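Structural prep section.
Before we set up the soaks we want a predicted structure of the protein with 5,6-dihydroxy-NADP in place, mainly to decide which crystallisation condition to try first. Input record follows.
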Amino acid sequence: MDNFTFYSPTYFVFGKDEENKTGSLVKRFGGSKVLIHYGGGSIVRSGLLDRVKDSLNKEGIDFVELGGVQPNPRSGLVYEGIELCRKEKIDFVLAVGGGSTIDSSKAIAAGVVYEGDFWDYFQGKPITKALPIGTILTISAAGSEGSSDAVITNEDGMYKRGSRGEALRPSFSILNPALTQTLPHFQIGCGITDIMAHLFERYFTVTEEVEVTDRLIESLLLTMIHEGPRVIENHDNYHAQANIMWAGMMAHNNSCGVGRDQDWASHDIEHELSAIYDCAHGAGLAVVFPAWMTYTMKHDINRFAQLAVRVWGCQMDYKHPENTARAGIAALKQFLKSIGMPSDFAELGADKKDIEKMAHTACYGDGRDGYIGGFAKLGEADVVEIYRLML
Ligand code: NZQ
Ligand code: ZN
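Run finished without errors. Recording the tokens verbatim:
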């Protein structure tokens, strides 16, 4: 295990009706004038926005609203949010929604207190300062409620980039699993896939002797495999939603990733797809991951076989561990199909004519050095091959 530091100061409030504590939590974390940031309207239709406003009013906290965050959140609304916060003297950003809303809120919170262009942060500048952020999560997926990351699509060229900084960790996050019961079937599947992807990105590592994080990841994957289909079958299964919601947070606040190298090439490969075709991030990952696994398993066949045995219950073939590894990938594909995820370019709405362009941007965009991936170092030609495996 490698040396590491881990600081995850978010105050989590989990359970039914806990959004009614929003006002007191904002107060506790120093907010006196709040930007309520949200998406395309699901929180208006469900009545959540009204409950949040009531809670702020009860504590006498002022607020302004900015809705309209699109999935794969755009830079334009971030600039608008920064201007609004400056004009209104906002001191706390409250994200009510999913990963897209939370990431847009994080980018606004960092941009408000920065004199330059917020996009600098998405070109490698570390974020050290931001307004405090609170979140009320409505979909278990991206893990942004506990992470130090944000992902934004730059509309000038339509490319998607991530940024990172401890200042982006939310001060508090309210996780009420009942809020996810209004999600459409497809979004639930996308969320399950993204959570599993965050675990795979950490599982595939070159670091040795990382049993504790291996085992944590495996247990979370087993939880997803058990609870995912139960939620897909019955959206009102509160306890299954609750297990998935907490697994989603655990999968990405990096408690499973400390002390080990991580990969993240699949996310880079997917971000090109969601930037160009505006597909859901989880749906893109469902197509990318089996292809990435098939291409990279030669780098450490035993690790793939271990995952197949411990998580998918495959029989170990000691003479030909590649057979076990392949059986694990087949089991993953089957699972993704069973939860309604696409399996190839056609189902995703992607076009093979863009493969070379996407591979180039994934490897060289925004100052990258031509390679992506910590477990398997991939160059442009490798990424082209991985995209071709998705046809
Ligand atoms: O916009 P509204 O109307 O709210 O509808 C949303 C949106 O259409 C809907 N939705 C959310 N909660 C709902 C609901 N509909 C009904 N009932 C509810 N309770 O779901 C749709 C998707 O929402 P979105 O926020 O885009 O989903 P998700 O949480 O999957 O976020 C995806 C974004 O997160 C980024 C992705 O790249 C993508 O842009 N990621 C962020 C990460 C991070 N910050 O740490 C890590 C991830 O790997 C990921 O890259
Ligand atoms: Zn993800």
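Observations: The two ends are 38 Å apart (CA to CA).
Flagged for discussion at group meeting.
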